[in-house]
Write a structure and sequence with these properties.
By secondary structure, the chain is an alpha+beta fold. It is about 15% helix and about 40% strand. It has 1 helix and 13 strands; from the N terminus they run αβββββββββββββ.
Length: about 180
């Protein structure tokens, strides 16, 4: 290959890398597109928000604050229909929002790590989920919910530096939510 050919190839590759970097920055600013990754203080990579459903088509909006070790929905009840949950992670750790049909957080089956055993729940019991997302981020999910009682859970389990596990559910990240007729 001639030196001119190598220069053109080098220039072409440089332009491709620049275009990719600009596109990634644009997606991060817009908060859209595929999930972006962020690095936690512990040095592990966490996926950013992956919205669930279309909150724009919701009948009701519920603001939910997630923090170590609480889930706080406002309001705590909503009419049946398509409900958008706007989850604000105000904590320093990654959290998720799992919607489970049932009225008593303490009655949910647990696995060996102290988290809700999602596989042991009956079919249709898990009715929605906003996947794990980092602290300081807001993520949305919209779900069609029938009248009844629900439990909102953060079911994240972390392995601590000493090898022990930390279940966010076991630490208190569960609360009730009611959907009315």
């Amino acid at each position: 290959m001639t030196s001119r050919g190598r220069r053109c190839r080098h220039l072409f590759c440089s332009l491709l890398l620049l275009a990719a970097a600009c596109g990634e920055q644009q997606a991060q600013r817009a908060g859209s597109g595929p999930a972006q990754a962020q690095t936690s203080p512990a040095g592990k990579t966490e996926a950013a928000c992956q919205p669930a459903g279309d909150p724009q088509k919701a009948d009701t909006v519920v603001e939910v604050t997630l923090r170590e070790w609480a889930i706080e929905p406002e309001p705590v009840r909503a009419p049946a229909g398509r409900i958008a949950f706007i989850a604000h992670n105000r904590g320093g750790e990654a959290h998720e929002l799992l919607l489970v049909r049932g009225g008593d957080p303490a009655a949910l089956p647990l696995d060996e790590a102290g988290a809700v055993d999602e596989e042991a729940l009956g079919p249709g019991t898990v009715v929605g989920e906003i996947e794990e997302f980092p602290g300081g981020v807001t993520c949305e999910g919209a779900f069609a919910l029938e009248a009844g009682d629900y439990v909102l859970v953060c079911n994240v389990v972390e392995t601590e530096p000493d090898g022990s596990t930390e279940s966010h559910y076991a630490m208190g990240m569960a609360t009730t939510f009611t959907v009315t007729d």
